[in-house]
Design goal:
Layout: E1 2-8, E2 12-14, E3 21-32, E4 39-46, H1 58-68, E5 70-75, E6 78-83, H2 89-94, H3 98-112, E7 118-124, E8 128-136, H4 140-147, H5 161-169, E9 180-187, H6 194-206, E10 210-216, H7 222-232, E11 236-239, H8 245-257, E12 259-269, E13 274-283, E14 287-288, E15 292-294, E16 299-308, E17 313-321, E18 329-339, E19 342-352, H9 364-384, H10 388-404, H11 408-424, H12 429-439
Parallel strand pairs: 2-19, 4-7, 4-9, 9-10, 10-11
Antiparallel strand pairs: 1-3, 3-17, 5-6, 7-8, 12-16, 12-18, 13-14, 13-17, 15-16, 18-19
Helix pairs in contact: 3-4, 3-8, 5-6, 6-7, 9-10, 10-11, 11-12
């Protein structure tokens, strides 16, 4: 496997000004060579009560209410109708729940493992249990037997994702062997341990373990799940209906089988005259990245995750740089990119010229796309701080940008969520749809 890097423009040409200015860089990271590596996988499945609520259509619901009666309650943050009498075994067969679909999806995953793969299964709710420790795929019968315990578990009402992640991380041993390490986390509700979850996601990234997240339905914390995935460069998926779980997990496995470069890490070393304002990943998915900063902001580390065959990681970096004299050349940053045993370094150079145009016109479409992610991030930060007016204003700005990109459906989602925040002062289902849909915008970048 050979890493490749391309910077545009190169060098960065800046005008001669008396004040600091922003320098933009479009960075592309790719890899050549491919060999199928063993997969060490841990699946963390939400087994809280909300995952066991049967899925019925309107007529079936009316029939059940007529038979048993029902009243509305909150389960794991989700409003549901609770029957006065529990369903019989026969009725549960007729009306599958999300945990039923999850079990079927993981069973299909087990069937597709090859002999050198390993799988661990963890179920989490208020309590957490390891259904199967990291087990070779050759012991398929043991894995299936462990999985069959999942639908009958009673681990509590709430969801403790942090404990599930802790047990998942414990399934991976430190080794120099070339393997793909991946955690898949599936949940439909809220968790009260977000800070610890984020810390565990950072630990996973530092250990070369990629974390992918799957959010189900309308009540999960999409910004937490997206953040957990982005910290290690994993995939973040939104599943509207439980019937889509199997296809989503199958897509995750397919993507893993196509990995060319794994757990790519980008390290930026900056001189005293330069500061990183922001960094946005365009592909594989559009999102703002939060580097780990050391040495007073002089050294920054970003985990970019894995690359599939034919795929490249594209980033936009915005540097705040000090003034320079005409014809002066200055190093803005040194990049070091690592994946496994492969390392590549590259210096980013700026050349000051009186006739320069900044930013160059060729970068304007890419910068405009990056601003979509930045506006979305600022709107979410305002919402979390309870500043709904500012959040709504930023979402309307986002809608205008999306119209400029000829994305009318996404613009309508942004406007709908802006109106929802003003009226309800809490995010609606449109917030989830907007979060995951805007991430796909980067995939059209060339």
């Amino acid at each position: 496997m050979l890493l490749q890097i391309r910077c545009t423009p190169e060098p960065i040409v800046l005008p001669v000004l008396k004040q600091p200015q922003i320098a933009y860089l479009h960075l592309t990271i790719a890899a050549t060579g491919y060999s199928e590596l063993p997969l060490h996988l841990a699946v963390v499945a939400d087994a809280s009560r909300s995952m066991r609520i049967p899925i019925v259509n309107e007529q079936q619901f009316r029939d059940l209410v007529r038979q048993s009666g029902a009243h509305e309650v909150l389960v794991d943050g989700v409003p549901v109708w609770q029957l006065r009498n529990p369903l019989s075994v026969e009725q549960r067969t007729l009306y599958p729940s999300p945990i039923t679909y999850t079990t079927h999806a993981i069973h299909s995953l087990i069937e597709r493992l090859v002999p050198h793969d390993r799988l661990a299964l963890i179920a989490c709710a208020s309590d957490t249990i390891v259904l199967a420790p990291s087990t070779p795929a050759t012991r398929r019968t043991e894995l299936v037997s462990a999985l069959m315990r999942l639908p009958a578990l009673r681990l509590g009402e709430t969801t403790n994702l942090a404990q599930g992640l802790q047990l998942a991380l414990a399934q991976f041993v430190t080794t120099d062997e070339d393997i793909i390490r991946r955690i898949i986390l599936l949940t439909d509700g809220f968790t009260g341990d977000t800070t610890l979850c984020i810390s565990l996601a950072r630990e996973a990234a530092n250990r070369g373990i990629t974390l992918s997240t799957i959010g189900l339905g309308g009540a999960f914390e999409e910004h937490l799940l997206v953040q957990l995935a982005d910290l290690s460069g994993g995939r973040a998926s939104f599943v509207h209906e439980a019937t889509e779980i199997s296809a989503t997990i199958a897509t995750e496995l397919d993507s893993i089988r196509q990995i060319t470069a794994q757990t790519i890490t980008l390290q930026l070393t900056l001189p005293q005259t330069v500061a990183l304002r922001w960094i946005v990943r365009l592909t594989p998915s559009l999102t703002t990245l939060t580097p780990l900063s050391t040495e007073h902001g002089r050294r920054l580390t970003v985990h970019l995750g894995d690359l599939q065959r034919g795929e490249a990681a594209q980033l936009v970096c915005a540097f705040l740089v000090a003034p320079g004299a005409a014809d002066q050349r200055r190093r803005l940053a040194r990049f070091q990119i690592r994946s496994g045993r492969s390392t590549i370094e590259h210096d980013v150079i700026a050349h000051y010229r009186p006739d320069a145009v900044n930013p160059p016109p060729t970068l304007l479409p890419i910068i405009s796309r990056a601003h979509i992610a930045l506006l979305k991030q600022r709107a979410e930060q305002a919402r979390q701080q309870g500043d709904y007016m500012t959040a709504a204003h930023l979402l309307r700005q986002l809608a205008a940008r999306l119209h400029e990109l000829t994305e009318p459906e996404l613009a309508a989602l942004a406007l709908a969520e802006a109106n929802n925040l003003i009226q309800q002062q809490q995010p609606g289902i449109t917030a989830k749809e907007l979060t995951y849909a805007t991430r796909r915008l980067g995939q059209t970048t060339s």
